[in-house]
Write a sequence for this structure.
């Protein structure tokens, strides 16, 4: 049985995909193909290149601040400071605050492949053509520019130019791209890491960044609801993480922990589909 895995976007929330990748490792059933958007595309690429879920978790923890104080301590290292300052240097004339090539460049040493063809597992990555609104799917050729395009959230990251197109975040048109796996997989698991959290009695008024990015969440929810109604994946795994901001790097451990329930569901399903025992 060929099982496909679709990983959605969501910034820091997307790190909740890591326990799901570990679930595939634990059951011993690698995905036949992976499709991803934004952070899901980046993690999917690392996994498709041969990194285990545990190795990806270890790498994320080694480069992520557990607190703001830890982040400040890390930036005392001049080399790290120079790298991050280059990555976050404003580039407002080009439509964003952050440069995707510089941010991806900080992670490039984790990715041993330069092209899709070098990956061990087939990967499909989504982006959006800014001028036409069309979905653009990459599954061959240069890998890093495809990842840059997939994560280029408008107003945050600068758009990416490739193949004569101006490309932005793939989540605008296809946040969790399970449909891209239908033609090559028997069953598809789709993980959504921006699912709503249970309502609270009192909710604060959002600041500017929260309002803009929250508007994307609202639009994504409407699109996903329609796609789920028309053609759902074989297993839909929503992870309620929308209360975590996409750049709240101090909540990485929380995102990982809250991804464990999704991983348990995926382990049980994989065991059922393949007839294997569920790892303890």
């Amino acid at each position: 049985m060929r099982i496909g895995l679709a990983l959605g976007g969501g910034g820091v929330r997307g790190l909740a995909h890591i326990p799901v990748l570990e679930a595939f490792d634990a059951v011993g059933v690698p995905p036949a193909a992976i499709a991803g958007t934004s952070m899901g595309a980046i993690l999917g690429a690392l996994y498709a290149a041969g990194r285990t879920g545990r190795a990806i978790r270890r790498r994320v923890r080694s480069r992520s601040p557990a607190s703001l104080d830890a982040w400040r301590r890390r930036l005392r290292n001049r080399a790290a400071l120079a790298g991050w300052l280059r990555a976050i240097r404003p580039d407002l004339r080009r439509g964003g605050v952050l440069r995707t090539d510089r941010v991806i460049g900080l992670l490039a040493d984790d990715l041993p492949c330069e092209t899709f063809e070098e990956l061990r597992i087939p990967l499909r990555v989504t982006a959006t053509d800014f001028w036409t609104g069309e979905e653009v799917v990459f599954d061959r050729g240069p890998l890093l520019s495809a990842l840059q395009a997939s994560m280029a959230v408008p107003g945050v990251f600068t758009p990416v130019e490739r193949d004569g197109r101006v490309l932005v975040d793939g989540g605008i048109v296809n946040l969790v791209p399970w449909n891209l796996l239908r033609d090559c997989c028997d069953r598809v698991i789709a993980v959504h890491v921006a699912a709503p959290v249970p309502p609270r009695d009192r909710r604060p008024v959002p600041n500017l960044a929260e309002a803009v990015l929250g508007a994307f969440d609202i639009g994504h929810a409407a699109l996903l609801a329609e796609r789920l109604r028309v053609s759902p994946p074989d297993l839909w795994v929503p992870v309620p993480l929308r209360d975590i901001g996409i750049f709240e790097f101090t909540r990485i451990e929380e995102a990982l922990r809250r991804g464990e329930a999704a991983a348990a569901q995926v382990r049980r399903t994989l065991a059922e589909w393949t007839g294997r025992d569920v790892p303890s």
